[in-house]
Amino acid sequence: MIKSLLSVLLLFTSLLIRAQGVGKFEIKLPSAPEGQLLNGRLLLFLSTEEGAEPRFQISDEVSTQQMFGMDVENAKPGQTLAFDSKAEGYPRVAWADIQAGEYFVQVLLHKYETFKRSDGHTVKLPMDRGEGQNWRTAPGNVYSKPVKIKFDVRSKKVLTLNLDQINPELPDPATKQTKYIKYVKIKSKKLSEFWGRDMHLAAWVLLPEGFDQHPEARYPLCLFHGHFPAEFSGFSEIPPPADMDTSAYNARFGIYGYNKVVAEEAYAQYKQWTSPDFPRYLVVEIQHANPFYDDSYAVNSANIGPYGDAIMYELLPEIERLYRGIGQGWSRFTYGGSTGGWEALAAQVFYPDEFNGCFAACPDPITFEAYTMINLYKDKNAYFWDGPFRQTPRPGKRNYLGEIQCTLEDVNRREMVLGSKGRSGDQWDIWQAVYSPVGADGYPKPIWDKKSGVIDPSVAQYWKENYDLMHILKRDWKTLGPKLTGKIHIYCGDMDTYYLNNAVYLMENYLKSTRTPHYYGEVDYGDRAEHCWNGDHTQPNYISRLRYNTMYLPKILKRIETSAPEGADLTSWRY
């Protein structure tokens, strides 16, 4: 009788677990060469949406799906790990917060490499593998096939997920070269010494029409800063097909067929570039992805290394040698938007004699008095405005109408789940990696606690003295001013998606106040324009953002004509 009751009880329990669904996950790690241990960030995704794989459904938008993250330290290949149910989650914080229901589940291991840096620290980080620091697609990262399950946190049922899929290697970028577009890659001595392994810099170079027919010509150079360029952007020698599919809707700009607009602009730029009267110069787009981001921010940094010097004194001279650049400060200009906007201004400030002008569009925060919605020197918490009876969340993203898409806490929580110790490979963590001193553990010293948002004022002071561009200009204008007058141009929409206009307002106020000398530059705003307005009042943002390589040229030519030293070559490149 007792045995019979026990059997019935076991059967009932089994049926109950099946009805509840899966409540726990085990992850089968992939095989690897003998003796090799696995390190990285293990990410588990739960999605309610069918279609795209769950790993591609994580974002800052309201529509984001769920993920959890945990570190993998020195794991043996082929072993099975229990996914930690206490792992940090986004957007739901805890495992217990996930409602019972049907989900598509997937897991991914973002692999880390061990670096023994020249500063004495050993750190584990995800090296870029040619994809532009993207954990979803990085070659060699392993993941599972998505499966549909019933999930219930109360269940003890375990599902094993196999990391048996691998992101493939990428083709050699050199195969994308054409008559006009060239690919240059060098081993950087400076960066290799810092990181303790071979590190490279690469760039796409757009050659002028008639380059081969005019061997006597030497050319000015324009450095177009921005995110990792997998290929040279916005230039096509063939027009888009007449029957190109234009059914896709672009939610950012609210139009259909934006893919064709992009293609048409790329072909129009080719026609303009090759027209008889167009000035001839070199355009350079740099690949400087690193273990923290798709871009180094083009300055020297305690955590990332001497990228500013490596670009300025290793890569650019090699490009100018190969493609007959003039190679003097009066003949170099720099521009870009967002990340590239900050880099353009920073390059001009940190290397004032090496560039003759910068055009910084919608730049990342150029003073930390307005670090988006935070004053790092006065505020105590990055996530909230504190009142006597409540905390008001700081917004992180808006549309041009001011409608809030997410908060600063939301964005930082997503990054915290993607990677501990500032290893998310995303926006707030790269700012921290570039601007912060090295922490005792070898990783960037946090500017604030990722969970609470409490700001560390000592780190903020370090940021101020080393990377706050407005503070540096104020502090050093006596020596910098004579080298920068006439060179600074800044543009931003007054409804920038990430509130970057707030810092531009403060910078404008300072620049207008400069004397002996006055800055004699330009600061301009786009009315109700979101990210990334770049100074063109005649075109919508979705058009002007495709015209960086031509829109500033009239101002560049005028600057060359009025500032080039006596005897400068103003003719060989004007054929």
UniProtKB/TrEMBL annotation:
Recorded superkingdom: Bacteria
UniProt xrefs under InterPro entries: AB_hydrolase_fold, Mycobacterial_A85_antigen
Q: Which Gene3D superfamilies match?
A: alpha/beta hydrolase
Q: What name does the UniProt record give this protein?
A: Esterase
Q: What organism is listed for this UniProt entry?
A: Salmonirosea aquatica
Mind giving the lineage of the organism this protein is from?
Bacteria, Pseudomonadati, Bacteroidota, Cytophagia, Cytophagales
